């Protein structure tokens, strides 16, 4: 299977590019960005997408839902 590159804008943290398998899901993308799928959501064109959906966008926003600790 061919790989695909996805640009991920992590809200408040910067932009990264990840290379994923063609059958990767949005949950796989969240993990590739270093987060657990329960602590972040992916937005495509401003709308959240389910984690089990196959990645079909070249550019997404990742919104962290949970941030740790007191600062």
Overview of the structural elements:
- The protein is mainly β and 71 residues long.
- It is 10% helix and 41% strand.
- It contains 1 helix and 5 strands; from the N terminus they run ββαβββ.
- The chain has one helix at 26-32; strands spanning 3-10, 14-21, 40-44, 47-48, 59-64.
- Strands 2-1-5-3-4 form a 5-stranded mixed sheet, with helices on one face.
- The mean pLDDT is 92.
Comma- or semicolon-separated keywords:
71 residues; mainly beta; five-stranded mixed β-sheet; 1 helix; 41% strand; globular
Number of strands: 5
**Strand order in space, largest sheet:** 2-1-5-3-4
- The low-confidence runs, each spanning 5 or more residues with pLDDT under 50, are none
Strand content: 35-45%
Structural class: mainly beta
Q: Quick check: average pLDDT?
A: 92
């Amino acid at each position: 299977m061919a790989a695909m590159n996805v640009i991920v804008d992590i809200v408040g943290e910067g932009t990264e590019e990840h290379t994923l398998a063609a059958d990767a899901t949005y949950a796989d993308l969240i993990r590739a960005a270093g987060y657990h799928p329960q602590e972040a959501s992916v937005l495509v064109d401003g709308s959240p997408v389910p984690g089990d959906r196959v990645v079909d966008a070249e550019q997404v926003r990742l919104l962290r839902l949970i941030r740790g600790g007191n600062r």
